[in-house]
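If you are new to this repository, start here. Below is one unmodified record pulled from the training split, so you can see the exact layout before writing a loader.
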Amino acid sequence: MPAMTDAFSLTRRGFILTAAGLASGCATARELIGPPATNARKQAARELAVSELEDWLIGFQPDEPFDIPLIDLTKLSRRFRRTEEAHEGREPPGTIIIDLDTKHARLVLKNGSAIRYGVAVGEDGKGWTGPAAVGRKAIWPSWTPTARMRVEDPSLPAFMPGGVTNPMGARALYVTQRGHETLYRLHGTDEPWTIGEEDSNGCIRFLNEDILDLYGRVPTGAPIIVRRNGQPV
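And here is the target side for that same chain:
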C-alpha cells in the first residue's frame, strides 16, 4: 500500500492533504451515513470528499480501498436519475447504448426493459464513432491526462492514482474497438453537477453510484452503441 499522503497529494484542484490535516479529523465526515472508516487512509479520503463535494454529499457507501461518496439526488433533474424503463429497440440484452443528445446511457435487460442512467458527455466522448465493446474493467482507476489536456491546463499532474477526487471516479469501463483499446471510457466522476451536461474534457461520465451499478451488471465484451440524432454513429 502506498504512503498515506500519496493517494491524495495530486488533485487537479491543487488540494494538498497534509499530515496535520489527517490528524485533525472532520466531525462532519464521521456523522454521515455509513460505518466508520476502518483505517486512517480511508478516513482521509472521506474528509477530502466532504471538502470537495460540499453540499452535494449525503453519505458514503462502503467500498475498498475507499468508500464511495453518495450525493443528494434531489439536486439532479429527475430525467438524469437512474430508472428502469421500457426498451423498444432490437438490441440484445447486455448492450450499452449511449445517447449523446439526451445525455443518457441505457443497459438493455432481458425482460424488454432497460436501466437508464444520466451521463455527462465530454469533448472526447462526442467524437466517438462506430460500435465498440467493454475491453476491461477497473476499480478506483488511476488517471493519466492527455498531452492536450496538460497543454490546456499546465497545473494537471502527469499521473493521478485512484481516489475520491480522481476524475475517473470509483469504477471505469475501458472501451475497445476491433479488439484494440481506445481512449474512450465510461467512468464515474467526482463532479456530480456535470451530469446531464457537456463538459470540456472526458468521455462518458456517470455518478459514482451509477457506474458502480453498471460495472456490476456487465462483463467484459459487452457491446456498446453510441447514438447521435437517434442513429448509431
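Two things worth knowing about this chain: The CA atoms of residues 58 and 98 lie 28 Å apart. The chain has two domains: 19-72, 82-232.
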